[in-house]
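Before a colleague's protein record goes any further, I have to sign it off. What it holds is a sequence and that sequence's fold in token form. Would you go through it and say whether the fold makes sense for this chain? The record follows directly below this note.
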Amino acid sequence: MNTTDLLHELRPLLTAEAAAEASAGIEPGDLEQAVWLRLLERIQEVGPPPAPADWLRSTVRGEARSLRRTARIETRYEGGEPAAAIDSCPERLALRAEHRRALHEAVRRLPGRCPQILAALLSREDLTYREIAGELGISQGSLGPERSRCLGCLRRILAAEVAAPDRRGKVRLRQPADR
């Protein structure tokens, strides 16, 4: 019997055994997957088991015991705040508002049409390039290059305002060579 035939023959038995052994905290599908893995490993190492049905029943029971033991050891994390609550904490909201304010302030200091272009791009209305170009009276094809130029200006403004990190101990002083 080849491997494919063996797998097709054992599928209904494995489904029934996994459903019977599954309990609270153990999904039958997880149990089936673990047993399929064991069977394929065994076939690859030493060949198919001589009594496949008996091997399958004992392996299902062993995997179920192992999964129950793991479920008892693992505990659900109940502490702390969910990720959504962390994002909406007052400190993060205040920091986000401060960052937005600083960004919009820097955008207003840009030269030429850049403040209007970037303000339209940052708008909560989520305007398309066509809408922005129509609103500003420029061609849609020139909006991309203008945007790139404006973002370059914005990067330079923001980089000048952000302090460069210290080099703390990374500077080597050249010692005069002893001769």
Notes: The CA atoms of residues 167 and 173 lie 13 Å apart. The mean pLDDT is 83. DSSP finds eight helices and no strands in the chain. The radius of gyration is 32 Å.
